[in-house]
Amino acid sequence: MGYADGLSGPLKEQTVTIANGATDSSAFDTEMHTFLAILCPAALTGTSFTFKASDAIDGTFTIVKDDSGNDVSVTVGTSRWVGIAPAVMAKLAALRF
Questions:
Q1: CA separation for the pair 63, 49 (Å, rounded)
Q2: CA-to-CA distance for 89 and 35, rounded, in angstroms?
Q3: Is the dihedral of CA 20, 54, 76, 13 positive or negative?
Q4: Whole-angstrom Cα distance, residue 24 to residue 86?
Q5: What is the pTM of this model?
Q6: SS (H, E, C) 16-35
Q7: In this model, does residue 59 exceed pLDDT 60?
Q8: What is the pLDDT of residues 3-56, one digit of tens each?
Q9: CB distance 73 to 50 below 8 Å
Q10: Which of 31, 92, 32, 86 is nearest to 63 (CA)?
């Protein structure tokens, strides 16, 4: 049975951290959920996130490309939600940005 909002299951929240001075976040397992949005904190200093993916949480992460061969990235800013196109991020086993 589907959910009224068209999603295939309940929403799940997961915290991911980019350490001070680091360029990549910690990895997180999408558990085959569709990735929907990022909540950017007030302390964010970057202006974009480029996504990296792996077929396993402890695997080798490489930059996600779109069907034209461009890096998949989003513009971010402080204290806001950034939506992610589900078609781009669906069915990835693990992500970092």
A1: 11
A2: 6
A3: negative
A4: 21
A5: 0.71
A6: CCCCCCCCCCCCEECCCCCC
A7: yes
A8: 444 555 667 788 888 888 888 999 888 776 666 788 888 988 889 988 898 888
A9: yes
A10: 92
- Per-residue model confidence (pLDDT) at position 80: 93
Confidence at residue 4, expressed as pLDDT on a 0 to 100 scale: 45
**Ramachandran bin of 91, using left for φ above 0, alpha for ψ from -120 to 50, beta for the remaining angles:** left
Find the length of the chain.
97
Which residue do the tokens 């992500």 mark? 95
CB 79 within 8 A of CB 38: no
Amino acid at 89: M
3-class SS letters over the chain: CCCCCCCCCCCCCCCCCCCCCCCCCCCEECCCCCCCEEEECCCCCCCEEECEEECCCCCCCEECECCCCCECEEECCCCEEEECCHHHHCCCCEEEC
